[in-house]
Specification:
Elements: E1 30-37, E2 42-49, E3 54-61, H1 69-83, H2 95-111, H3 116-119, E4 131-140, H4 144-155, E5 160-163, E6 179-181, E7 198-200, E8 206-208, E9 211-213, H5 216-224, H6 235-238, H7 246-249, H8 259-281, E10 286-288, H9 293-304, E11 306-307, E12 314-315, H10 319-338, E13 341-344, E14 359-367, E15 370-373, H11 381-390, E16 398-400, E17 403-411, E18 414-422, E19 427-438, H12 447-453, H13 477-484, E20 489-490, E21 495-502, E22 516-519, H14 534-544, E23 546-548, E24 551-560, E25 580-583, H15 588-594, H16 601-617, E26 656-668, E27 671-672, E28 679-681, E29 687-693, H17 710-729
Parallel strand pairs: 4-5, 4-19, 5-16, 19-29
Antiparallel strand pairs: 1-2, 2-3, 6-14, 7-8, 9-10, 11-12, 13-14, 14-15, 17-18, 18-19, 20-27, 21-26, 22-24, 23-24, 24-26, 25-26, 28-29
Helix pairs in contact: 1-2, 4-11, 4-17, 5-8, 8-9, 9-10, 10-17
Amino acid sequence: MKKIISAFLASMLLLGSIGGAAMAEGMTPGTYEAEAQGFHGDVKLSVTVDAEKITAIDILEHSETEGIGAAALPKLVEVVLANQTIGVDSVAGATVTSEAFKAAMTDALTQAGADMDKMTAAVEASTLEDVQMDADVVVVGAGGAGIAAAAQAAQDGNTVLVIEKNAEVGGNTLVSGGQYQSVMPYLVWDPADPDATTGVGYDGNTYNKVVESVATLDELKTILNWSEEPFDEGYYKDHEFVAGDIAELSKHGVHAEYLQTLKDLKAEIQAYLDWAEPKVEAGAGQLTLFSTVNLHIFQTYYGGLRPSADMSSWIYGDYDLVKQFIEGGQTLKQWLEAQGSTFVEDTQPTLIGALWYRENEFVGATIDGVDYPGRWGTYFKAPMNTVLATSETAASNKIMLRTTAEELIVEDGRVTGVKATQYDGTPVTAHATKGVVIATGGYAANLQMVVDTNVYWSSDYLSTSTKTTNRSSLKGDGITMAQAVGADVTGMGYTQMMPISWIDDGNLAFGGGNYAIYINPTTGKRFVDETSERDVLSLAEFRNGIEHNGTKGVFIELANASSKIPGPYLYGNEDVEWRQYVRTVDQLAELFASLGLETDADTVRATIENYDKAVMAGEQPEGVKKTNPNALIGYAEKDESGKYLPETYKLDGVELRVRFMAPSTHHTMGGIKVDTERHALDAEDNVIPGLYAAGEVTGGIHGGNRLGGNAIVEIFVSGRTAAEAIQADNQ
């Protein structure tokens, strides 16, 4: 990727600290090039100097993430030119990129003969006075939850101030994959019109209903037979709890809060099976998808039901919070679309750990006739436009970037504002007349906090050297601030690992287990149901993977190279060292040898062939079972009904996508305790006046494990809910 950044940005921005650093002297005038390793590759730049100062900085080349590292580079150019020192703070959320920039600057200035003691002098603290800001609603954090809260508050006629520590809007939502986990009735089976293949959406358009393999019936039958007895925690004191084994879990009861949902769901499933099973007997290979709100609620419950590592306690999602965010998801999509967000209705890719085919693929936003692709967080593109451009209060609304919230202001027992500090040291006091929303995300990038609170993962797998998918800014700041004013926390100690992360930097690799198989690099065999929940996959990877350059749980993913990877995938079918390779089966032995692996290619071939044979026959693979195995690693034609024709099967010559991945910290389940209106609560469940929380900074919703695709719905619903509560509380 080529990036050319203006060389004279310093004249455009005078920072509060300008003049604080010593000027360079005695440099040899000229232009010097240097580079250093960034997040995704080298950051290459040229630095022009005269005898006394840096006159220009050009970023010549980089491969940093759009909207994150890429956004940080011009800001670093600004601050270095303005202050004539590289002793400046890294851009929050882009630490690796910032350090690469400073390393390359150090190299270039050393070439120029600069006095490096002077050129690395720390920027003096700002002498600017405290900036006073006023708004009806102050939102801390400009990720999905924060922007949703701000947009709803603005639509309700409130002035809004958003405080964000990073250099751009988006927070951790910037790396969201694009799937939206919510039931859309017009896309799924309708008991009132069971044979319908299309449905009419809320926009009046007709859409194809989602179809899926008949293999989904097995999971529905398991739920249909789920025990209605009280959940038996005692059983697991003598038997291993295997997360994701719902066949076993279903035998041991259900918690009382979810019993009625289970009963209602069973009636819905039975009606569907009464329609579906005769069609299967008649030879149908695919069926219109069954999906209901009750199914989503119940799957969220058992998908998050987890014991602590020592079996001393159990955790699962609070029923009222789960029900509220799932029901809220029914109108959320329409709210987003009304502001310009766009979705693909007929395509339903399955996100890793989602458990069910109800995702709606987010593809971007259309604002003022301009299409923005759904890449790196444009979930919030349209709501942000609402805040800053189209709401009645837009002229007064503001998003303050590179501003770190540090303390909540409490007056007469009520939270009335936030104290913060801007990038240059300028203090900010933000006053909120109606309420403050904490939406700062989780703490998966604070590995010390993860380890200190952990009650779920073995220390053999989880440590402060574990990598994370999260932005470096996700440190748990909001939790700490809320606790300081009396807020309680819940669910702490449960951290979800992302099982498909790049082994070098922990970044999300995107993908899904429905079209791929996971291979133990030592045995060459499958070791897990690839469609399981994320922590199930991660645990299996830790147990079956290898260690490479300090990363634990490294495994091999194999898929047909033509399979689509859900989300904004960076790579096509090119080779990327220790990430992805495209090879035919007869080339695997050479690939494994070149990487120093002892993986037996013949065993891998047999693993693929046995798996594909089972899939074509509509059967479960031998050994390790799999929910809904419906995609081949090799290739075979299908008949009109969608069934594979085994006689057309081939593996030789078929291009395979070979990826190397491992688990990294992804989502923290615990956080600020809230009620269904997202009021922050104290230890006695009393509301803390004026304080609200939304998104991953809260706890109690997902239990011990978050299902894939639930986060986007939950953060946007919770953000909107918090804003609506502020409006109601101030009537």
